[in-house]
Backbone:
């Protein structure tokens, strides 16, 4: 089990817990995620933060940016799975993340977000995780 946390964010990964192998949280909220949901969050966060890095130098100091991405969870060929939407909002120097988990039928959904101060640290912790599908080993964040 790996616990990563800082001011305004939390990430706990325990591959031995099934089906919810991760817990994420922000100011006043927390939600458990399946391995597939965590993997989608890792991918989305990585893609959005890479896009922000690529665009940041092209933004004027007072210019804001909104980038969003929605990824399917589960089998993308099936309409039965849910989806994860992640949005990044900010400017060239700082940004915040917002998350919406749309559940597959019979499961739970959630919405949450992190402040600008917490978002970069949370995204960095997600990036340091090894893929969640490996051997049930401890994660490294």
Residues:
């Amino acid at each position: 089990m790996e616990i990563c946390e800082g001011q305004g964010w939390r990430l706990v990964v325990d591959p031995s817990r099934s089906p919810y192998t991760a817990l994420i949280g922000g100011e006043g909220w927390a939600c458990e995620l399946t391995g597939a949901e965590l993997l989608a969050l890792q991918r989305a966060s990585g893609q959005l933060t890479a896009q922000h890095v690529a665009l940041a130098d092209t933004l004027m100091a007072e210019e804001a940016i909104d980038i969003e991405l929605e990824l399917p969870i589960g089998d993308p060929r099936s309409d039965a799975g849910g989806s994860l939407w992640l949005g990044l909002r900010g400017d060239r120097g700082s940004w915040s993340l917002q998350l919406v988990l749309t559940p597959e039928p019979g499961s739970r959904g959630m919405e949450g977000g992190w402040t600008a101060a917490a978002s970069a640290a949370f995204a960095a912790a997600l990036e340091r995780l090894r893929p969640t599908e490996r051997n049930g080993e401890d994660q490294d964040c």
Remarks:
- The longest strand covers residues 65-72.
- The chain has two helices and eight strands.
- Strands lie at 2-6, 9-13, 20-26, 29-34, 65-72, 83-90, 95-102, 110-114.
